[in-house]
Design goal:
Pfam families: DEAD, Helicase_C, MZB, WHD_HRQ1. This protein is 32% helix and 22% strand. By secondary structure, it is an alpha/beta fold. Strands 1, 25, 26, 27, 28, 29 and 30 form a 7-stranded antiparallel β-sheet that branches. A 7-stranded mixed β-sheet has the order 2-10-17-16-13-15-14, sandwiched between helices. A 7-stranded parallel β-sheet has the order 5-6-4-7-8-3-9, sandwiched between helices. The chain is globular and about 80 Å long.
C-alpha cells in the first residue's frame, strides 16, 4: 500500500488554496461589530495601538502567539556618480529626492561601469531609482543620436500590473526630460495599433518574460533597431523567478543575450530583488553572467509591529473527527473589516483568487452593518480581471479612495501603494522572502506599520506561529532554479534555433546539457543539423512548445458549452484534477460545472451552475527509483537523492459541503494514468530502527504516512517552494529499496531543485517536522500537524505518535547538514514530546 501526497498540478484547484468558504451560517463573532469612527489621517494611530484595538475589541488576545517589534532605522545618504547626467539628477530632485541612499549610488556606479548588478534591499528602499538613474542618463545620451534612439532599455516585470505601475513612475520622473525618454508597455494588453509605434519609437519598453518569449524574440527582425541599441536590461523582482518558472526565464534571458549579440549589442543587466540569500549567485544563474550584489540597505525604516495570529478552534470536525480551526479566510475578513472601520489603510494578502473575492465579500457585508458608505471602500484585487478593471482598482489605490483591499500576490510585487498602515497575511505565503515582501507593503512612506500573519490550519503555519524564531531569526531563503533542466532547456533550444540557426559557438551560452540534448532533438525531427548549424524544422511556432509559467504540454481550454465562450485555460498537467468531469470551476465570481473533459482536443466544456459544494480530486500514486545519485547512512537507515518515475491516476472526486467541508459523496472517474520523471529525496528505516521506535506492523503505514505529510508541509521552510510544488509517497515495503520508505519529490518534469535542497538540509528539515507533530495539541492528528488537504488516500491511515517515535529514532543517527549554520536541538532534548504509550498507541 502506498500513501501519496501530490503537487498542485495534480489536484483540484478549489479545495487546497481556498480554505472552506465561509458564510454567515458559520460562527463569525456576532458580537464583533466595530463602532469606532475612522481615524483622521492627521492623527494616525501607532501600529501597537491599532493592534491593541483589534485584540481588545472582540476578546482576541489568546489568538496572538507572538509579537515582534522591529525598531525604526535611520538612513545613510550619498551623492550620485558624476557620470549621471545633471538633467537626470535635476529631475530626481524635482521629485523631492535631494540625495540618493548609499546603496542607490553604489548600484548606479556599477551600472555605469558596465557591470551587471543586483540590488537586494528591503521593500520601499528605492531600488527603482537605483537602476533608473543610470538608465535615464543613457537614454538621454541616446536621444542626441541622429535617429533619436541611440540607446534603449528593456524592463522585465513578472506581472502586467507591475509593468504598468513602473511606466507611470518612469513617466512622472522623466517628465522634465521631455521626449528624450519615451516609456511604453508592450504586453498582451497593448492595443495592436500601438505595437508598431512601440517597436519603432519607444526607448524604454516595459514587458514581461512571457511576451519576451512569445512575442518579441520570435519577431526579432521587427525589433532590430531596438535590440541594436539595447544598453540596459532591468529585471525587477528577480527573486520571483524561482523553480521551473525561473528556469524558463533564465533560458529566455539567454535567448535575448544571443540575439543582442547578433545585432552588436551587449547590454548590462540590472536586477532588483527583495532581500535574499546569495542574491549575486541567483542573479548569475538567471542571467548566465557574473553579477555584483548591492545588499547593504541604507534607507530608513519606520517602526514595524509584526503579530503572529492563530484562529481559535471551532465546534466543527473534519476528517476522522479531527478538530477544525476557524479558517484564515474568515479571520482575515474580520480583521480587514475592523481595520477599515478604524480608518486604517490596509491590504489583506490571500493565496487564492477565490479567497480574495470571499474576504472582500464578507468584509463588505460586515461594513454595511456599521456604515453604508464603507463597503465601497473595500475591494478585491487579483489576476484574471480585465485590463480596464485592474487599472481602475490601481487608480483607486493610488488616490486613497480604497481603504481596504483583499489581494492575491498580484499586488505583492513592487506596485507603489504609498501610505498603507497595515498588512494582514492570510496564511504563510511559502517563503520568508515573500512574507517580508508582503509585510513591507505597509509603511512604504517611512511611517510605522502593522503586519499580521494569520495561520491556516496546516502543519507549516501552525509550526511557524509557535516557533517565531523560524521567521524572525533566520535569513531569507536561497532562490532555487535550474536552467540546465532538460525538460526546460529542450523547448528553448528549439525556440532559439527558430530565431536564428544554432551555431557551435552558441552552445556554451545555453549550458553543459546542450550537447546531450541536441541529438535527441534531431532524432525527434525537431532540429536538423546543417553546415550553418541546427535549424528548426517545423511549420508551427517553436515558442509555442512550452508555457514558461506552466509545465509544458498543450493547455486545456475551458469553454462555456451553451455559448462557446472561452473562459480561460488550465495547464495540461492540471486538467485531470482541476477540470475533470463533474468538477466545480470558478471564474470571475461565477461557478461552473465541468460537463465533459476532452483530452484529445484539449477542451473542457462547462456550464454555469450553483452547486452547494466544492470538489476535490482523489488519486493513486506509485513511484519507481530510476537512479540513486547520492546516498548517506543515517544509522542503519539511508537518506538518498536521485531520479524517480511517478505514476499517478485520478480515480475519483469528493463533493464537500461549502460551509462545513462535510463530505457529501464520492464519484468514480475513468481517466488514464500519467507519468512524471523527476527528482526525489527519500529515506528508509530498518527493522531494528522500527523495533527501537516501538513501531509494529499495524501502525507502520500510518506512522510513515503521517511523517510524509508533515515533512511536505514543513519543506517550504527550507526550500524555496510551495507545498503544492512537491509530492510524496510512503510505502511500508518498497520494491526498489526493500525497506519502509518515504519519498518526497519535485512535482515538475526533470525536477526543480526542491528535493535536492531537502536532501542537503534533511536533518534540520526532519527535526522541525518532528517538533511540529509533537507540539501540536491535538490527540490523534489534525490539519495543523499530519493531515493534508490534498491526500489521495483521505488521510487514512495516519498515526501521530508513531510518526514522532519514528522520526526520533531516525534522527538519532543523522549526521549534521552540510549547509547547517548551527547544531539543531537533538530530538531527545525536545520538551514538547507527547506521552508515548506502548507500541500500538
Amino acid at each position: 500500500m502506498a500513501f501519496n501526497h501530490l503537487p498542485a498540478a495534480m489536484h483540484d484547484a478549489l479545495g487546497p488554496l481556498s480554505v472552506t468558504p465561509v458564510t454567515h451560517s458559520v460562527p463569525m463573532a456576532k458580537n464583533h461589530r466595530p463602532s469606532r469612527p475612522p481615524e483622521s489621517r492627521d492623527s494616525r494611530p501607532s501600529p501597537a495601538m491599532v493592534l491593541d484595538r483589534l485584540v481588545t475589541a472582540a476578546g482576541r488576545s489568546a489568538r496572538i502567539t507572538h509579537t515582534e517589534h522591529l525598531p525604526p532605522r535611520t538612513g545613510a545618504h550619498a551623492i550620485w556618480p558624476d557620470r549621471i547626467r545633471p538633467e537626470v539628477i535635476a529631475a530626481v530632485q524635482k521629485a523631492g529626492i535631494d540625495h540618493p541612499w548609499a546603496h542607490q549610488a553604489a548600484a548606479a556606479e556599477h551600472a555605469l561601469d558596465g557591470e551587471s548588478v543586483v540590488i537586494a534591499t528591503g521593500t520601499a528602499s528605492g531600488k527603482s531609482l537605483a537602476y533608473l538613474a543610470p538608465v535615464l542618463s543613457a537614454l538621454l545620451d541616446g536621444s542626441e543620436a541622429p535617429n533619436g534612439r541611440g540607446a534603449t532599455a528593456l524592463y522585465l516585470a513578472p506581472t502586467k500590473a507591475l509593468a504598468a505601475d513602473q511606466r507611470r513612475s518612469v513617466k512622472d520622473l522623466a517628465a522634465p526630460l521631455g521626449n528624450a525618454v519615451r516609456p511604453a508597455v508592450y504586453d498582451g494588453d497593448t492595443p495592436v495599433e500601438e505595437r508598431e509605434w512601440v517597436r519603432q519609437y519607444a526607448n524604454y519598453v516595459l514587458t514581461n518574460p512571457d511576451m519576451l518569449h512569445r512575442g518579441i524574440l520570435p519577431s526579432h527582425p521587427r525589433w532590430s533597431s531596438f535590440l541594436r541599441a539595447l544598453r540596459y536590461v532591468v529585471i525587477d523582482e528577480c527573486h520571483t523567478y524561482r523553480g521551473v518558472f525561473g528556469s524558463h526565464v533564465a533560458q529566455v534571458v539567454r535567448r535575448l543575450r544571443r540575439l543582442c549579440a547578433r545585432y552588436g549589442a551587449d547590454p548590462v543587466f540590472l536586477l532588483a530583488s527583495a532581500t535574499a540569500a546569495q542574491p549575486s549567485v541567483a542573479a548569475g544563474r538567471l542571467t548566465g553572467l557574473p553579477v555584483i550584489e548591492v545588499a547593504d540597505d541604507a534607507s530608513p525604516r519606520g517602526e514595524m509591529v509584526f503579530a503572529l495570529w492563530e484562529p481559535p478552534l471551532t465546534e466543527l470536525h473534519g476528517e476522522k473527527g479531527a478538530p477544525v480551526r476557524r479558517t484564515a479566510t474568515a479571520e482575515t475578513a474580520d480583521l480587514l473589516t475592523d481595520l477599515t472601520v478604524q480608518g486604517v489603510r490596509s491590504v489583506a494578502f490571500v493565496r487564492s483568487r477565490r479567497g480574495a473575492e470571499l474576504i472582500s465579500v464578507i468584509a463588505k457585508e460586515r461594513l454595511a452593518e456599521v456604515d453604508r458608505s464603507l463597503p465601497d471602500r473595500v475591494a478585491a484585487y487579483r489576476g484574471g480581471y480585465l485590463p480596464e478593471e485592474r487599472r481602475a482598482l490601481e487608480r483607486a489605490l493610488h488616490s486613497g479612495r480604497l481603504l481596504g483591499l483583499a489581494a492575491t500576490t498580484a499586488l505583492e510585487l513592487g506596485i507603489d501603494v504609498s501610505g498603507l498602515d497595515a498588512v494582514v497575511i492570510a496564511g504563510y505565503p511559502g517563503t520568508r522572502a515573500s512574507l517580508w515582501q508582503q509585510a513591507g507593503r505597509a509603511g512604504r512612506s517611512g511611517q510605522g506599520a502593522l503586519a499580521i500573519l494569520v495561520a491556516r490550519d496546516d502543519p507549516l503555519d501552525t509550526f511557524l506561529v509557535h516557533h517565531p524564531e523560524a521567521l524572525f531569526q533566520q535569513p531569507v531563503e536561497s532562490t532555487v532554479l535550474d536552467p540546465d533542466n532538460p525538460y526546460v532547456l529542450a523547448p528553448h533550444l528549439c525556440a532559439a534555433a527558430a530565431e536564428l540557426p544554432l551555431a557551435e559557438s552558441d552552445l556554451e551560452l545555453f549550458g553543459p546539457a546542450v550537447a546531450e540534448l541536441l541529438p535527441q532533438l534531431e532524432a525527434a525531427k525537431l532540429l536538423r543539423k546543417r553546415a550553418s548549424g541546427w535549424h528548426w524544422t517545423r511549420r508551427e511556432r517553436a515558442a509555442d512548445l512550452t508555457d514558461i509559467r506552466g509545465e509544458g504540454g498543450r493547455p486545456v481550454q475551458i469553454v462555456e458549452e451553451g455559448t462557446g465562450r472561452l473562459l480561460g485555460t488550465v495547464d495540461e498537467s492540471a486538467a485531470h484534477t482541476a477540470v475533470h468531469e463533474g468538477a466545480v470551476h470558478l471564474h470571475q465570481g461565477c461557478t461552473y460545472l465541468v460537463r465533459k473533459l476532452d483530452l484529445e482536443d484539449s477542451v473542457a466544456l462547462v456550464e454555469e451552475a450553483g452547486p452547494p459544494y466544492s470538489t476535490t480530486a482523489r488519486d493513486t500514486t506509485s513511484i519507481t527509483v530510476l537512479e540513486t545519485d547520492t546516498e548517506i547512512p543515517w544509522g542503519d537507515g539511508r537518506l538518498c537523492y536521485g531520479s524517480v518515475e511517478v505514476t499517478n491516476q485520478v480515480v475519483s472526486f469528493l463533493r464537500r459541503k461549502l460551509i462545513t467541508g462535510e463530505v457529501l459523496g464520492e464519484t468514480k472517474l475513468d481517466l488514464p494514468p500519467r507519468t512524471l520523471r523527476t527528482r526525489a529525496v527519500w529515506w528508509t528505516v530498518t527493522q531494528d530502527q522500527l523495533d527501537a521506535a516501538r513501531i509494529n506492523p499495524e501502525i507502520l503505514g500510518g506512522a510513515l504516512h503521517a511523517a510524509e505529510h508533515a515533512s511536505i508541509g514543513l519543506l517550504p521552510l527550507f526550500a524555496t517552494c510551495d507545498r503544492w510544488d512537491i509530492g510524496g509517497v510512503s510505502v511500508p515495503l518498497h520494491p526498489d529499496t526493500l525497506l519502509p520508505t518515504v519519498f518526497v519529490y519535485d512535482g515538475h518534469p526533470g525536477g526543480a531543485g526542491f528535493a535536492e535542497r531537502a536532501f542537503h538540509t534533511a536533518r534540520s528539515w526532519l527535526t522541525a517536522t518532528r517538533r511540529a507533530i509533537a507540539s501540536c495539541e491535538c490527540e490523534a492528528g489534525c490539519p495543523s500537524c499530519i493531515q493534508s488537504p490534498k491526500c489521495g488516500n483521505g488521510n487514512d491511515p495516519l498515526h501521530k505518535r508513531g510518526a514522532v517515535r519514528l522520526l526520533t529514532e531516525l534522527l538519532r543517527s543523522a549526521p549534521a547538514d552540510p549547509e547547517q549554520a548551527g547544531e539543531p536541538p537533538s530530538p531527545e532534548a525536545d520538551r514538547d514530546r507527547p506521552s508515548e504509550g506502548p507500541p500500538g498507541t
